[in-house]
Design a protein that fits this description.
The complex is a heterodimer. By secondary structure, chain A is of the alpha/beta class. In chain A, about 40% of the residues lie in helices and about 25% in strands. Chain A is built from nine helices and nine strands. In chain A, the strands form two sheets. A six-stranded mixed sheet of chain A has the order 5-6-7-3-8-9, sandwiched between helices. A three-stranded antiparallel sheet of chain A has the order 2-1-4, covered by helices on one side. In chain A, strand 6, helix 6 and strand 7 form a beta-alpha-beta unit. Chain A is globular. Chain A starts with 15 loop residues before the first strand and ends with a helix. In chain A, about 45% of the residues are buried. By secondary structure, chain B is mainly α. Chain B contains twelve helices and no strands. In chain B, helix 3 crosses helix 10 and helix 10 runs antiparallel to helix 12. The longest helix of chain B is centred in the middle third of the chain and has 35 residues. The two termini of chain B are about 20 Å apart. The mean pLDDT of chain B is about 80. Classes of the chains: A alpha/beta, B mainly alpha. At the A-B interface, helix 1 and helix 2 of A face helix 5 of B.
Chain lengths: ~260, ~300
């Protein structure tokens, strides 16, 4: 019902929207990402897991063309972020960890500024901003300066900001870190709704496993730059914990991989 | 990015400068009125509004000394504030070229500087016309325009320096202090150092046979060459020549040949505009060069920086 046009052709799940082949990034003699082979399908919610410093953010930055890969290939939305960063950034929304806003402007002006950077005319962006402020539950605080916002409100404003350009794919870097339980729930519901209602592909990096388990279709586990497992949670459970086991948590699976690595 | 005009900081500094401008105009204007009482109208009286020192200092001296501060204030936190508030990583994720961020920072700064300077010069001219009652001629207006361009370049150079520091240093306080340190270095230490160094290389001794002209010449030459490394010297020599048509060279009297000196005393008339321009052209070109050089370095640094270290 919201902004139903603009999202373009109704892509069915199954086509890949990100594809990497032996994607590698080295800083000096340290390997941050080692020969990553990954496919993300259109419309899915993909959880990218791993301990701090595993190379999750570096991978995200390579997807956006903000960091040059040392070797390997990557395609995002059909474009090479190395050679066509602007085309990729037009189609992809990125919410960095602990996103910042211009604190002396109100929420609406912050969103309008980003819309202008995306060359969206004001008359098109104004209704979109209203819609998304309502969607993330900030329409009553829209005229307040962002400086007084709580962490949860800022994070939700971040989602609205990412959605202003109507992306096909969004990258969320630790979207729930530092939020209280209520804020976390609202955030997760919001992310789930985006994927369900708008068929947006969500690529989410996190190390909060119970949350990932709640909303992700598939997960990938990255440890020390290597992707050690990829698949749906059931598949991974079958692999690591045995089929017959009734109750499992992502945490058990994850710890199993973590100890092996 | 166009937040310069609304920030409190900027309002304060421009209020201060406008105030100083008015005080100078009033001071100088009344001084001129008294001095020229009963005299026929001297040529190029209007420019005296800007160059006459009045009771304390002239407008030109004021801009030469405090102009860099405007540039520094406009630029010192332009990049690292975005870094600290974590908006930089968001900006680079938008479909804009990365260099448009740094270009916009510099260009909006230059536009801001230009507007402030034009406003002050108009205020002083307006007050001057009221108080002194002299209307500027075309030549005077052209000289003022050249002065304006030189001043914009000069302050933009400092804007570039402070943006460079804001790219290099993570903390806004560090970049502010670094810019201020450089400003103090150029305004005091370069001229001081020039004096010391030229004394060391070619000491002028007060011997019984008087001063050796050869040594004196060398001394002066070294001193002025070193001073030229300071943008402050470049700027003040250029502007004082352009605004004071009686000055025919940027060199000191000692460095001139005897014939040159002779002609200078014989022909006490103002220099035509074109001749003044010819004299200061090297200075202006150097100002342009250092401003662009400074911005170029800044641009390179910014483009090569890893965004992930935000």
């Amino acid at each position: 019902m919201l902004c139903s046009s603009g999202w373009g052709d109704d892509n069915v799940k199954g086509q890949s929207i990100i594809e990497t082949e032996k994607l590698t990034k080295r800083y000096g003699d340290q390997t941050a990402v080692n020969a990553l082979d990954l496919q993300i399908l259109e419309g899915e919610v993909f959880g990218f897991l791993g301990p701090n410093g595993a190379g999750k953010t570096t991978t995200l930055l390579m997807f956006l063309g903000l960091t040059e890969p040392t070797s390997g290939k990557v395609q995002v939305c059909g474009f090479d972020p190395k050679r066509d960063p602007l085309r990729v950034k037009e189609k992809v929304g990125y919410l960095p960890e602990n996103v910042g806003f211009y604190d002396d402007m109100n929420a609406r002006d912050n969103l309008q500024y980003v819309a202008r950077l995306n060359r969206i005319p004001d008359e098109i962006s104004a209704p979109r901003i209203d819609t998304w402020l309502k969607e993330v539950g900030l329409n009553e605080e829209a005229e307040k300066k962002v400086g007084i916002y709580s962490k949860g409100m800022r994070q939700r404003l971040g989602i609205a900001e990412v959605m202003i350009k109507e992306p096909r794919l969004i990258f969320l870097d630790e979207p729930t870190i530092g939020l209280d339980p209520d804020g976390t729930n609202r955030m997760l519901d919001l992310i789930h709704a985006l994927s369900r209602d708008k068929n947006i592909t969500v690529f989410l990096s996190s190390h909060l496993l119970d949350q990932v388990q709640r909303i992700c279709d598939r997960v990938g586990i990255m440890i020390k730059g290597n992707l050690v497992a990829v698949g749906s949670i059931q598949e991974l459970a079958k692999d690591k914990l045995g089929v017959d086991k009734e109750r499992y948590t992502l945490e058990e699976i994850y710890m199993r991989y973590f100890k092996e690595a | 990015m166009e937040d310069h005009f609304s920030s409190t900081r900027f309002l304060l500094i421009s209020a201060l400068i406008v105030m100083v401008g008015i005080i100078i105009a009033a001071m100088v204007g009344m001084g001129i009125q008294e001095e020229t009482k009963g005299l026929a109208k001297p040529t190029l009286l209007f420019l005296l509004l800007f160059t006459s020192t009045g009771k304390l200092f002239s407008f030109v001296q004021f801009i030469g000394f405090f102009g860099p501060l405007i540039g520094i204030i406009l630029g010192f936190d332009s990049i690292n504030r975005e870094r600290v508030s974590r908006t930089l990583s968001k900006l680079v994720a938008q479909p804009i070229y990365r260099d448009s961020i740094i270009n916009a920072k510099f260009l909006t700064g230059v536009v801001t500087i230009s507007i402030v300077l034009v406003a002050i010069i108009l205020i002083i001219s307006g007050l001057g016309i009221r108080l002194v009652g002299v209307v500027p001629g075309w030549e005077e207006i052209w000289r003022l325009v050249i002065y304006l361009i030189a001043s914009i370049l000069y302050i933009s150079f400092w804007l570039g320096i402070s943006i460079l520091f804001s790219v290099v240093f993570r903390s806004t306080a560090t970049s502010a202090l670094a810019s201020l340190a450089l400003w103090i270095f150029f305004s005091f230490f370069v001229s001081l150092g020039a004096g010391v160094l030229s004394d060391a290389v070619a000491p002028v001794s007060q011997s019984s046979s008087g001063i050796d002209p050869q040594v004196l010449l060398k001394h002066e030459r070294i001193q002025s060459t070193i001073s030229l490394f300071s943008p402050m010297t470049l700027y003040s020599e250029a502007t004082s020549t352009i605004l004071d048509p009686m000055r025919k060279t940027t060199r000191s009297l000692i460095l001139m040949g005897p014939l040159e000196r002779l002609s200078l005393t014989r022909f006490q008339s103002p220099l035509p505009l074109l001749q003044s321009i010819t004299i200061v052209l090297p200075h202006l070109v150097s100002l342009v060069a250092i401003t662009f050089l400074c911005f170029g370095i800044c641009y390179l640094f910014f483009m090569r920086q890893e965004i992930r270290t935000v």
